[in-house]
Amino acid sequence: MLNPGQPITLMSPLDLQEGVASLSRGAFFKEATLDMTLSILTESAARMSGIARVSIWALTDAQQELRCLELFELGNGKHSHGEFFRAIDYPGYFRALGSEGGIAADDPYLHPSTAELAADYLPRHQITARLDTPIHIRGELQGVLSLEQVGSRSPWTTSHRLFAQAVANLVTLALVEYVAEEARRQAQTASERMKAVFDASRDALLLADGESGIILDANLQAEKLFGWERRDLVGKHQRLLHPKSSANAIGEQFRQTVAGQMRATLNSEIQRCDGTVLPVEITAEIANVSDGRRLALGIFRPI
């Protein structure tokens, strides 16, 4: 158990470098939850450095609040979270976070950037020195990694700052991975929902690439209408689903519809897999997607 009355003993720069390297190789970045990852990082940083308190804070509420996501206290081995600062209560501190590359307060009671914390936060936790390292995501300040000494203090050194920056970089990596995974999960959920709506439609639906006319997807009603299974429809050119006598004209109408040069509803004919021809009404909905492509959703209704 750490004795708060003793000065901290920081590992050598080489040992700290290897420690951070071992953390960056950790599989937990992709396998653990965000909470678990931040817990591992704070505890590992505290044990490597001998710093009494290591915490990760996020700017929220339009950067008007700094909330603790994870705190590890070396003295009692305790993890916690939830404490917060409001900009309205600590305006000087928040200005310093936004304008400085970091805050290294050897005496936070006297340092101009942290003196506001002396009214309550610092004495409540017996903090005698505080080092805040910014956490940036996509170039924007999103939070800070905080190292805090308790009891006897030692001046913050270059090794401290380099170590804190390295750990802050790992926090950024964890947060970026979390955001990316959330985006993938939401996209998958949206895709599954759209697929359910697509298949549940009472109309026959074909999704085609707007430039090539190649069919990308088909729903259950399209299988019934055309007499082809989905795997047979996907990859075909949309012209092949119409009688040869009208295929070229349909292809030109498709091109003009995608280009916005003609109305999106027309009467036409389709040719089923058994060769029979059916009159249909076709409505086309055109959508632009993020990669610059245009997609055409064809809605087919027998007349």
Describe this structure in words.
The protein has helices at residues 13-24, 28-31, 34-49, 91-99, 121-125, 158-200, 220-226, 230-233, 244-258, and strands at 53-60, 65-73, 78-80, 84-86, 103-105, 127-137, 140-150, 204-209, 215-218, 265-271, 277-288, 294-302. The protein is α+β, with helices and mostly antiparallel strands and 303 residues long. It folds into two domains: 13-184, 2-Layer Sandwich (Beta-Lactamase), CATH 3.30.450.40; 201-302, PAS domain (Beta-Lactamase, 2-Layer Sandwich). The strands form two sheets. Strands 1, 2, 3, 4, 5, 6 and 7 form a seven-stranded antiparallel beta sheet that branches. The chain has a five-stranded antiparallel beta sheet with strand order 9-8-12-11-10. Mean pLDDT is 84; it is low at 1-7.
Helicity level: 25-40%
Strand content: 25-35%
Helices, by number, come to: 9
Query: Under CATH, the topology of the largest domain is which?
Result: Beta-Lactamase
The CATH superfamily of the largest domain bears the name GAF domain
Which architecture of the largest domain per CATH? 2-Layer Sandwich
Q: How many strand elements?
A: 12
Overall number of structural domains = 2
Q: Please compute the radius of gyration using only Cα atoms.
A: 31 Å
The major β-sheet equals: 7 strands, antiparallel
CATH class of the largest domain: Alpha Beta
Find the structural class using helix and strand composition. alpha+beta
- Uncertain ranges: 1-7
Mean pLDDT: 84
User: What spatial form do the alpha-carbon principal axes imply?
Assistant: elongated
SSE pattern? HHHEEEEHEHEEHEEHHHEEE
- End-to-end Cα distance, whole Å, is 82 Å
